[in-house]
Amino acid sequence: MNKYINLTLENIDDEHICCAIGDKKHQDGVDRKKEWIKEKLKDGHAFRRLDARGKIFIEYEPIETAWAPVSGKNYEYIYCLWVAGSFKGKGIAKELLEYAIDDSKKKSKSGMCTLVAKKKKPFLGEKAFFEHYGFKVVDSIGDYELLALSFDKSDTPRFNDNAKKMEIESKDFTIYYSPECPYVEYEVKELTDYAKEKGMKLNFVKIDSLEKAKNAPCVFNNWANFYKGKFISNTILNANALEKLLK
């Protein structure tokens, strides 16, 4: 039987958080993510992972306090469900999701929701997997969709109106990011250095509050790229990826 660990204030300093595991260059991002989780635990944030050294976890919290531009009442928002490497194909994702569903029902929630894309995109869950468990599309913005699994007849969640803009005033390459992902801190530093070296104008907008997250001008989990005022992707970039993208 698989053993799982739920992060708490009592154990978080001693437990790994799966992402960027064993990669020292991302340690600052890991530390910031842990501090973020500590603050979010009071909101009902849940981070459950397999008791193993790998990227195997689910992370969710009440939609009212979730750092995403979505609105709803009494739903849980799934930030991420990730099972990587040799742990795939062993029913672990099923166990993690079923735990989250049961946990939400015990808390008398009206359902769960998550961000996906019509075609698989990096850093987002697989639509078909969630649909297998009864999740249905309740809102969409271009290629992105909000899936929800309803437990009762309450109104389903929706993207906030501001998220549907998918554009900003600045024409410079602009990146929105948050501490929700431990990879972003290193990449922001790398991209900042790259921009200075190339003499390139690169803007960063840090989403560091619930208000900013709810008012993001696009679909958003932890990273968003804009170019010439238009949203182009949710993919976390490094210097090489940015260079290829601009070419």
Short description:
The chain is an alpha+beta fold and about 250 residues long. Helices cover about 25% and strands about 25% of the residues.
What's the helix and strand layout?
Blueprint: E1 4-6, H1 27-40, E2 46-50, E3 56-62, E4 70-71, E5 75-83, H2 92-106, E6 111-117, H3 127-132, E7 136-141, E8 144-150, E9 158-159, E10 173-177, H4 184-198, E11 202-206, H5 210-214, E12 223-227, E13 230-233, H6 239-246
Parallel strand pairs: 5-6, 10-11
Antiparallel strand pairs: 1-2, 2-3, 3-5, 4-9, 6-8, 7-8, 10-12, 12-13
Q: What does it look like?
A:
With 247 residues, the protein is α+β, with helices and mostly antiparallel strands. It has 2 domains: 4-160, Aminopeptidase (3-Layer(aba) Sandwich), CATH 3.40.630; 162-246, Glutaredoxin, CATH 3.40.30.10. Helix content is 26%, strand content 27%. The chain has 6 helices and 13 strands. It has helices spanning 27-40, 92-106, 127-132, 184-198, 210-214, 239-246; strands at 4-6, 46-50, 56-62, 70-71, 75-83, 111-117, 136-141, 144-150, 158-159, 173-177, 202-206, 223-227, 230-233. Strands 1-2-3-5-6-8-7 form a 7-stranded mixed sheet. It has a 4-stranded mixed sheet with strand order 11-10-12-13, covered by helices on one side. Strands 4-9 form a two-stranded antiparallel ribbon. A hairpin with a 5-residue loop joins strand 2 and strand 3. The longest helix is centred in the middle third of the chain and has 15 residues, at 92-106. The radius of gyration is 18 Å and the shape is globular. The model has no long low-confidence stretch (mean pLDDT 95).
